[in-house]
Amino acid sequence: MVRVLGEVFETTDVDGSVLVVDDRSPDGTGELADRLAAELGFVQALHRPVKQGLGPAYLAGFHRALADGAELVLEMDCDFSHDPWDLPRLIEAARGADLVIGSRYVSGGGTGDWGLWRRAVSRGGCLYAQAVLGVGIRDLTSGFRCFRRRVLETIDLDSVSAKGYAFQIEMAYRTLRAGFRVAEVPIVFTDREVGASKMSGAIVVEAVRRVPALRWKAFRRRL
Q1: Whose CA is closest to 207, among 3, 54, 17, 60?
Q2: How far is it, in rounded angstroms, from Cα 45 to Cα 29?
Q3: How far, in Å, CA of 199 to CA of 187, rounded?
Q4: Which residue has the higher pLDDT, 195 or 128?
Q5: Are residues 101 and 185 in contact, defined by beta-carbon separation less than 8 angstroms?
Q6: How far apart (Å, rounded) are the C-alpha atoms in residues 107 and 186?
Q7: In terms of DSSP H, where are the helices of 68-191?
Q8: Cβ contacts of residue 153 below 8 Å, gap of 6+?
Q9: By mean pLDDT, which of 70-74, 77-81, 155-159, 214-218 is the weakest?
């Protein structure tokens, strides 16, 4: 985390603040975030009492960012799988879009040193969601994003129910359904330098089930 913060604010000239959302992580993330918040004025820590999944943690972070007056809200992993040097490009692209996605699957993007099986699972999941939902976004599961404030204010965040990586799909789909502009900028996603993957069978199953459920809700005008 310390290295990521250094890359973001010491080398990229990004002006803003960092919110670390911690769901009682056993690896000491919460304690480290508190120390950094005490030392650095641009860091804040949001502690949640129980681990509820990726989606609820992001939603809590979004609510906090909106309450603090943020005009642009960016999300990214803090393990160097998302390159902090790409942040200015996402911010710049937000001048002409309401949601900018750092995409592995547009020209210029990629997945670094992934193996064939991991590439197939990731790409296949994106193609599945793209086909079922009937949208043109090529990387629906990317977690490197920049939202304009008006998107998060318009979407009913409390009705977003996906907890795993389907959360990223649901947020992108709701953004499109609300009539907002979505842009993708190429990024190269590499294996994390620190930490462990949160991917599990349950997360995959949720994504497979959640995608057609989203399309059905949209068909019934309940999204």
Answers
A1: 54
A2: 10
A3: 21
A4: 128
A5: yes
A6: 7
A7: 87-93, 116-133, 149-154, 166-177
A8: 66
A9: 77-81
Cα separation, 159 vs 163, in Å, equals 12
Q: How far is CA 175 from CA 66, 87, 92, in A?
A: 17, 20, 19
Tokens coding 6: 């250094």
Structure-block tokens of residue 42: 């641009």
How many whole angstroms separate alpha carbon 28 and alpha carbon 134?
Answer: 41
Each domain of the chain, given as residue ranges in start order, spans 2-219
Name the pairing type of β-strands 43-47 and 99-103. Answer: unpaired
Distances (CA, A) of 59 to 53, 62, 172: 10, 5, 14
Q: Which residue has the tokens 């296949």?
A: 124
At residue 41, the pLDDT reads 82
Of the candidate CATH numbers 3.40.50.2000, 3.90.550.10, 3.50.4.10, 3.30.70.260, the domain formed by 2-219 belongs to 3.90.550.10
Contact (CB, 8 A) for 37 and 45: yes
Kindly tell me if the per-residue pLDDT of 152 is higher than 90: yes
Question: 10 in the Ramachandran plot: left (φ > 0), alpha (ψ -120 to 50) or beta?
Answer: alpha
Q: Which of 56-70, 104-118, 199-213 has the lowest mean pLDDT?
A: 199-213
